[in-house]
Fold this protein.
Amino acid sequence: MSASSLAVMSSNELAINGGKSIRTSPWNAWPIANDQTMANVEAVMRSGRWAISGAYTGSMGYEQRFCRAFADYQGSPYAIATTNGSAAIKIAMQEVGVGPGTEVIVPGLTWVACASTVVDLGAVPVIVDIDPKTLSISLQAAEAAISNKTVAILVVHAYCSAADIDGFVELAKRTGIAIIEDCSQVHGAEWQGQKLGSFGQLGVFSLQQTKILTCGEGGIVTCCSEEAYNRLQQYRANGRIYTTQPKSKQLELVEKGEVFGANHCMSEIHAAIALAQLELLDEQNAVREDNASYLASALESIPGVNTIKPPEGLTRRSYYDYVIQLNPDIVGPFSIHRVVDAMAVELGTFIETLDAPMNINVLYNPLLSKFASTKELTQQLNPIRFDLPNANIAYNTSFAFLHHLLLGTTKDMDDIVSAVSKVVGNIEKLRE
């Protein structure tokens, strides 16, 4: 964008202050219910089997079909579907031995369930800082936080980027600590040509409403070991697993009871939706990737505006939250919440901050947990004991929009660039 264009933008009144919005037409809708999605749902509704705890109808259920398709897509031998991403994290952590007396290393800039699930299992989340370049968990910070109680590291690949998975795999080999990859923001992304989520001992994914692979609410865990697969099935189905010889009109689950399980089963309806959506993922990701590349190049022309550059090993990116960062040394001090509000009005869509750092996040209240029962545990669970300077800087200088905007046209990307230019050019009025 030229200097003259920037000057014009800064002379326009912000829409939040009564001026004209950059965007007046609607954006692409999300989620997208295509014909196959609707056909799958109708097939489930007419089948008489709406859950895996329903009787076998003579053909493979959608939950198994989706799990097998997703495992093949990931290049993993096994996959287990769950009710949501939090349940996926929970059963993955149960599989590696997370419980009372143990610790799990968790990044300080991610969704609160990554830490609260650890607390729910009676363990202590040790919250560490992020790499400021990738906004994902810092390898150095994680290694420094290891203790004799550490049983797992939750490696969250965040914000259209990825953690240093090569470094974490090496760290796991050296220490014997389990790596659980949280890939809820990176479905389809690849590191050196291999799918993220297939490097750690376990991979976990969310299929929640806003995710790039969604069924409204759901989750899935991938693993390489048949023994782990059988236990994970039990963790999510009250100690039951699929029989290898199903019989029509009989339950397809058999009782094993080898672990203390609970009901975290994905419904057949959600699985049917997920299966149809999986068929669209690569095509949609390619459109997002092209538009994101165009957008990053265009935003570079605006002084003080930066985007997240991929680490060297990330050979294919996927885009969930597209992050735009402002440099206060160039644009001056600002309230990120005012910027978010102004951008939302300019573009007529949802704009957000990053997740609040875990040490100040109002949604993360471990001291209200039943496990904060002693003075020692209260001290260990208190999130303010963790120092997260990089996470706090990123939170206060970044805003993001959801991936469905990237399914649009070049003209749509130009509207985003114009809105960013206009807001940055009027930053003084936001400070007022």
